[in-house]
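Supplementary Note 3. Input sequence used for the single-chain structure prediction.
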Amino acid sequence: MTEQPAPATYRFGSFALYADTGALLCEGVTSLLGRRGASLLRLLLERAATPVSKDALIDAAWPGLIVEDSNLTVQIAALRRALEPGEGGRWIETLPRRGYRYIGPPVTRVDANAADAPQPTALAVPAKPSIAVLPFEQSGEAAWFADGMVDEIITGLSRIRWLFVIARSSSFVWRGRSADVKQVGRDLGVRYVLQGSVRRVDDRVRINAQLADATSGAQIWAERYDRTAGDLFLLQDEIALAVVGAIEPSLRRAEVERIRRKRPDSLDAYELVLRAQPDVDSGMPDRATVALTQLGRALSLEPTYALAHGLAAMSHHNRFLRAGLKEEDRLASVRHARLAIEHGRDDALALTFAGFSLGMDGHDRQAAFAAFEAALALSPSTALAWILGSVVAGWAGEAERAIDWSERGIRLSPFDPWAFAAYDAQALGHFNCDRYAEAAGAAYKSNLANPAHSITWVQLAASLVALGRMEEARAAAACVLELQPGFRVSGQLTGVDCAPELASKLGNALRASGLPE
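The predicted structure, written as C-alpha cells, is reproduced below.
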C-alpha cells in the first residue's frame, strides 16, 4: 500500500489543502473534499507535474480495496469542480490509459504545526439549528453496524424540518480522528455535534452517544444503549430511532436557552417561536396568552409559518379547556390548526400540533389521526406525535391505542416536556379498562412531570375515587380547583368530546371527589 504523507498544508495558486481534514480553502471560503477526494488531491500535489498511475491513485483513496476505474473518474471530476472557483478546473490533466497529472501553479508544502500555515475561515453557521453527526468510534467487528446506524441517524435528523443536517460525506472526514467539537463546528459551520461509540462483546452491543454545543463544547445530552445483538439490522433501526427521538427535544431546549440569552431587540419569526415554546409546553392558559403575543408577532413577519400556526392552535386549546371554554378560543384553535396543515405538509411538528387541536377542539378524530400519521410518515421519531395522539385516543375511549402510543412516545423521548400528557393518556386508558391501580400509577407520573397542570390532578382524583381512597381523592380535587377555579365536570368532558361510556365513569368519579358539576 502506498505510504501516505504526514498531515500538512499544501498551497497552490489561490488554494490551500489541509491534508488532515480534507478542507480546501480558496480566497477565504472553505469546502470539504471528503476523505477520498483529499487523498487523491494530496497525492497529485505531492507528485506535481509527474504522471500518477490509476493504481497509485486508487491505492491512496481506497486502500486495500478493489474498485472499478469509474469510481476514480467520478472522484477526479468532483476534484475539478472543487477547483473551478479558483480557475483550477483544468489543473488536473488526464493521461489516457495511464492516469492523471497535476499541471497547475507551483505547490508549497507547509508542516501542519508551522507558524505560517494558512488557517481556514470558519463557515457561517445557519440561522436555524445545525448539526453534524460524526462517525462513531468502533471496534473492527462493529464497523459496518456503526456506519449503518450513523447513516440512519443522519437520515432521521434530516427529516426534522427545522434542523440543518450536514451530509455524511462531509462529517465522515473525521473518521479515525479525535475530533474537537469546537473545531468541527468551525469547519462544518454547525452549532451542534453528535459523537458516539459502538462496542460489541459476544452477543452484546453497547452504544454511547453524546450531543455537544460546538460553540462552548458543553454537553447537552448523553445516553447509553445496551442491547442483545440479535437481528443487527433491526437493532440499527431501533437505536437510530431512539437517538433521533431523544435529540429533537434536547436540541429544542438548547435552542430555547440560547435564544433566551440573546438581547430581544432583533427578533425574527424563528426566534419568536422559540421564545413562545416553553409557555405553550406548560399547558397553562395564562402562559398561553403570553405565547400568543410572541406567535402573533412571528406570524405578522411570516404569515405562512406552519409551526407558528401549530403552536398558536395549541395555545388557544390551552385557553379553551382551562380558561372558561370560550367559543372564540375553540374556533381560533381549529383555524390555526387548518392553516398549520395547509402550510406545513412537510413539517412533522406543525402537523402534530394541528392534529391535536383538530381532535380535541374540532372533535374530528379522523382528521386528527390523518395529521398524526402524516407527521410520523415524515419523521417516525417525532415523539410528540405519539404523545399527543395518545391523548386524543384516550378521550375517544380507545384505551389500548392510548396506552400503546403513549408508551412509544415516552420510549422515544423519556424527558419530553409533554411527557405528562403521555402519562395522562395512560391513566385514561387504564381507567377506561377498570385497571384503577395502573391508572393511579400513571396519574402520579403525570403529576410529577407537570404538577402545575390541572389535568394531571383530574386523572389522579378519578383513579383514587375508584380505588376507594377518598381522602386522597378530595385532596387531588382541591388541587384541580386551585389551579383551575372554573373547572366543571360536565364542561370539561363536553369540551373534549369524551367518549360516552368513559364520560359516565369518569364523571361519576370526579363528582364523588368533590369537583363541581
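The domain at 130-261 is CATH 3.40.50.10070 (Rossmann fold). Residues 1-6, 114-118 have pLDDT under 50 and may be disordered.
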